[in-house]
Amino acid sequence: MFELLDLKRHYPVRQGAFAPRRWLRAVDGVDLDLVEGETLSLVGESGCGKSTLARLFLRLERPTAGVIRYRGEELWAMDRQSVHRFRREVQMVFQDPYASLNPRMRVEQIVGEGLVIHRLGSDRERTRRVHELLEQVGLPPEAASAYPHEFSGGQRQRIGIARALAVEPRVVVADEPVSALDVSVQAQILNLLLDLKEGRGLTYLFISHDLRVVEHISDRVAVMYLGRIVELAPAEALFARPRHPYTRALLAAVPVPDPSRRTEPKVLEGDVPNPIAPPPGCPFHPRCPERTERCSRDVPAAVEPEAGCRVACHLYG
Question: In angstroms, rounded to a whole number, what is the distance separating the alpha carbons of residues 180 and 186?
Fold first, then answer.
């Protein structure tokens, strides 16, 4: 569905009136693909570039360099008709269910807005379609006449999912869709997403920093650090045998709800480097417990230690 080749998104930054322009490297050379029918999860610390990469997927931001293709067609070379089709086929579920719904619109207008924009069906058919969508996401039909403030956080996120599904997309980009919800509600939303994927044949790009959620929903997992993909593997393989030191540190930080299984957390040294002035060599080497002299000098190339797995680390060079 998607193919990303050496994709970069840098933002100009000025630190003073007469200071030279510098660049914040939000996404810095990403190679990635999204296969039809899968759930690909992006994980990493806050500020590593996950949401910027999502905006590049959605054609909301133009890349500084590199290529991004959707179904073989370069995203920024599309004509107006192709862009209109792309907007229908690729939809978004936002992180904040409180801020992503217009408080002045009724639910029927929010969910049906995409149907109006893409001129799908008559007024009566759109109303029927909205009621069907609300039922599919677990809301009663009478919710259509209510306003967003009348619902809980989980219910609002269901409205957001119904809105994304209204125009029958092929790809859904979900940017931390459960991070603002209680744990019990998170499970309901995740199970809903899985059921919708199976019933509609959807493809998901799922963004999260919660590895428990990622393990539950993913087919493949891409780990980001400072704008780069440091490891990519099938979910089962990544959680069973993480290869990159950063991935191992992330997994070691996940709490285990079993007092009999005590593990020593791997505390990383220092803070995430400044993306305006990243360190030379491997971007993770200032915090890596397994660094060597080469790590501070050379940027590691991505290698495949086994089929379907990719890691950018000198330990596997």
Answer: 9
134: CB partners within 8 A, 6+ apart: 107, 111, 140, 141, 143, 144, 159, 162
For the chain, give the percent of residues with pLDDT over 70.
97
- Strand-pairing partners, residue 312, are 302
CA distance 157 to 155: 5
Q: Say whether 269 sits in a helix, a strand or coil.
A: coil
Q: How confident is the model at residue 254 (pLDDT cuts 50, 70, 90)?
A: confident
pLDDT in tens, 70-92: 999 999 999 999 999 999 999 99
* 18 neighbors 271 (Cβ within 8 angstroms): no
| Cα–Cα distance, 164 to 93 (Å, whole number) | 6
Name the amino acid, one letter, at 98: Y
Judge if pTM exceeds 0.85: yes
Which letter does DSSP use for residue 203 in this model?
Answer: E
Per-residue DSSP letter, 97: T
CA dist 250 and 209 (Å) reads 9
* Pair 302, 311: CB distance under 8 Å: yes
Find the radius of gyration of the CA atoms of the chain. Answer: 21
Q: Which tokens in the block code for residue 200?
A: 């509609």
